[in-house]
Write a structure and sequence with these properties.
By secondary structure, this protein is mostly helical. It has five helices and no strands.
Length: 128
């Protein structure tokens, strides 16, 4: 296993930072506007707490982007894999048990995309 962080991993970290920061700040500052725009069912306090969690993922992403060795980011990558896997499962479960707006499929797609990207980064690092 190489201790270097691949360029693709750095791009994934940077992309995750941007997406997480946008959604995290949005949910934290104004969960009501997300509900108004998408029709997504929400409760303001829960939306803000989700925003906090997503902002923390953004912080982890930028720290991983700035890291210099795989050992410094491996735990973060594993955490992202679990977060995104459970997110996809949770969203599919939600769709199976309630009626949700189409925006949910967009969020499910983002979670699935990042799941694949982080799994790729993890296995690429383990094989080199």
């Amino acid at each position: 296993m190489s201790e270097n962080i691949s360029n693709i991993a750095r791009y994934v970290f940077l992309l995750a930072f941007i997406v997480d920061l946008i959604f995290g700040v949005w949910y934290f500052i104004s969960p009501e506007s997300w509900t108004a725009l998408t029709g997504w069912p929400t409760e303001t306090a829960s939306g803000r707490m989700l925003g906090v969690a997503i902002i923390m993922l953004a912080v982890g992403s930028i720290l991983a982007y700035r890291a210099t060795s795989w050992g410094q980011v491996e735990l973060y990558v594993m955490m992202e894999i679990v977060w995104n896997l459970l997110g996809v499962i949770g969203m599919i479960w939600n769709y199976a048990t309630m009626t949700l707006p189409i925006a949910g499929w967009f969020m499910t797609g983002l979670l699935a995309l990042f799941l694949l990207l982080f799994v790729y980064v993890y296995y690429q690092a383990k094989q080199t």
